[in-house]
Please model this.
Amino acid sequence: MEHGLRERWGGAVRWAWRVAAVLAVGWGVCGCLARPLVDVFAFPAPRLAGDYPETVAVPLEGATGRLRVVRNAESPWSVLYFHGNGEDLGEIEWLVRQLSRHATVYAAEYRGYGRSTGRASVATFEADARAFYDAAVALGAEPGRLVAQGYSLGTAAAAEVAASRPVAGLVLGGGFTSLLAVPGIDWLLPRDWFCTGEKLPRVRCPIRIFHGTADRLIPFAHAERLHAAAPGSTLVPLPGRNHETAHGYDAEQLGCFLEALEP
Model:
């Protein structure tokens, strides 16, 4: 009887190890496939707008980005703006004009978008964000008067800039804690990307977070978690606004933020 128990126990252990091995292999395969799949879903190619504004070329590693520069001679402030994933600079020209009422605008366009060359990827996105910052400074933006701002996907770029470069402030609209946390699968895969929630504790400037309370694409809970990650930040709920309608508040939120920064 004792021998039979040992046999059954040994069989159960071997079965458990086989299951664990299969799960480990499956987990590894998912990790290998995750990045190309994330590239497809995080960077859908937007339609090139018919009326494309004048832009400045920005050299990137293996590609060329574009900056839309609209100067405001009456404001000492500048804003480096990063748009969402379904837009190009032509489509957000209206927003750039609104932002320019408060500051000189340097609006970035990611590789593969609009007239930028190359192909957008999670592997290059954050390095490109830093390159756009360096280009804005080279074009005259003063770090002590430059605010990094982004909406939706653009919040990942803005947070990366604020965590790695000197800026006067950070404004995040419709942001997320991490890329895979948006569909709720961050626990499933071996790695994640654009972990804004982990970057914010390293940011040493004022932070303003605004978010629609009716946002179903990126729920308001993401904004609450980002606020918790940066206890000194300001959280501005936009009651009843969803992911699209909250986008119209970028300029207003920048204006309020700059007023609070003024001595």
